[in-house]
Design goal:
Length: 474
């Protein structure tokens, strides 16, 4: 499925979102960003900084009042708390993990119960700060950034609806009555059903809330005397504590007293920053630009995909040649780096998706992102009907390249019932030995008369004026 931006769906100039400070999300797949409650009152958006934060706090304060009078799990106050802490995914803000069609999904009931137990424990310490919710992803297993983001969205839907309504009214997007709020909203039509949609100010989203980033939390805690002493006490006797032991020590430390918990919350608040558009670690802004530039992407040769999987395979190799060219000879490599460090694999996947989609549309080839065919989720599956299938896997040179080529990709091919596959190595440097080994494996398979998966190496090293001599080529 081709990712479609809100701006494209409603024919709004992308610059309007930039001027309004709003995220331009996808409407048919999730944007991999999340709302962090710690950023709401810092927002430059006046409606969110005033009304949004009040709505969030009022909603959470109701939950606190209910949990304060709970006598035992299952009593009326506990049941009301469960209803108030809805963990169903709001399918109307475009944020989350899903890479395919969006669909609301409720978290398991036990996660909600455990989250309520932890919040209740903190309340008993005497802390009632609603922003403690941001810490729950760190303190409670199973509670991730998407859970926190979804709860926050639901709590301040009216403020988000007001922001969305005003923006859409100004740019000429049609608005409709809806069950989400008292304010009319734009709707997305999908599978015969209209879904109301809310837009999010981009200065309250991040790729991962700070409490999901273990390194940031540990460093923040280590620079605070009170927390450092408390954690050191919890780790006493452990010579080389593991990350799990360190994390558990912080969890036990911050839930021993209100003073320690409030200090930890203060430390985390000071570390919270919104998604950096310049670093763009998830490749969202670069991907957005590539989607807008689709008409200028050359679709190369003409292929007759009715001839079978070999032609689909050739279409994909053509798209990879363009992707490789823009990374190695253009400036697309910059989109694969953040602060001197390689970005996550998701960034390179999104950028390749943007280019590959132009080729797939030109030749009527179906593209699926991360389909699970029974052998695990491969990055991409391209197909023309049932029989002409090609799978593509992208791997950073810093990862398990040999295992990915020789084991993972073979499982994906078998599950997809195809012999055609391409293994793409995004080489950030120091990966030559791994690449040579999988090339030898490929050559060995071919010498044995087998169809070996193609290998495409993309040199994503940071570019300078230095010669590119010595680059590995196929």
């Amino acid at each position: 499925m081709r990712p479609t931006l809100f701006s494209t769906y409603f024919d709004v100039a992308p610059e309007e979102f930039d001027r309004a400070g709003l995220l331009d999300p996808y409407v048919n797949t999730d944007t991999p960003l999340f709302i962090d409650p710690l950023l709401i009152d810092k927002s430059a958006n006046g409606v969110l900084a005033r009304k949004g934060i009040d709505q969030f706090r009022n909603h959470f304060e109701k939950l606190v009042r209910l949990l304060t009078i709970v006598e035992e799990e299952g009593d009326p106050a506990w049941t009301a708390s469960e209803r108030l802490l809805s963990l169903s995914e709001p399918a109307e803000n475009g944020l989350g993990y899903s890479k395919n069609a969006r669909a609301g999904a409720s978290r398991p009931r036990e996660i909600r119960r455990q989250l309520l137990r932890t919040i209740r424990k903190v309340i008993r310490l005497g802390s009632k700060d609603p922003e403690m919710l941001s810490l729950m992803g760190f303190l409670e297993p199973g509670v991730g950034s998407d859970t926190i983001s979804d709860f926050t969205t639901k709590a301040m839907t009216e403020a988000l609806a007001e922001i969305t309504h005003e923006f859409c009214r100004r740019v000429g997007v049609n608005l409709y009555a809806n069950p989400l709020s008292s304010t009319t909203l734009p709707v997305i039509s999908r599978k015969g059903e209209d879904k109301p949609f809310v837009l999010i100010p981009r200065d309250v989203v991040r790729d991962l809330p700070v409490t999901d980033n273990w390194q940031d939390v540990w460093e923040a805690a280590a620079h605070n005397q009170l927390l450092r002493d408390k954690v050191s006490f919890m780790l006493a006797g452990i010579v080389e504590p593991t990350i799990k032991e360190q994390k558990e020590a912080i969890k036990r430390s911050v839930t021993t007293s209100r003073e320690v918990f409030d200090e930890f919350l203060k430390v985390v608040k000071s570390s919270a920053t919104s998604y950096n558009e310049n670093d763009d670690v998830m490749g969202y802004y670069t991907f957005r630009k590539l989607l807008a530039d689709h008409p200028r992407l050359s679709t190369g040769k003409q292929y007759d995909i009715r001839k079978g999987p070999i032609e689909v395979h050739n279409v994909i190799l053509d798209a990879l040649r363009v992707f490789k060219h823009h990374v190695e000879n253009g400036n697309l490599w910059e989109a694969l780096w953040a602060g001197g460090q390689p970005k996550r694999e998701r960034a390179s996947q999104l950028l390749f998706y943007a280019i590959a989609d132009a080729y797939c549309r030109a030749h009527n080839v179906d593209i699926s992102g991360e389909p699970n065919m029974g052998g695990g989720p491969v990055d991409f599956k391209f197909s023309d009907g049932y029989h002409s299938r090609v799978v593509v896997e992208l791997k950073k040179s810093t990862g398990q390249v040999e295992h990915g080529y020789d084991k993972q990709l073979e499982r994906y091919k078998k599950a997809s019932e195809t012999d055609f596959a391409v293994f793409v190595v995004i080489d950030y440097g120091h990966g030559a030995h791994k690449i040579r080994r999988i090339q030898r494996l490929r050559d060995q398979y071919r010498s044995e008369g087998k169809r070996a998966s193609e290998i495409v190496v993309v040199d994503a090293r940071r570019k300078s004026s230095a010669s590119k001599e010595g680059r590995l080529r196929l």
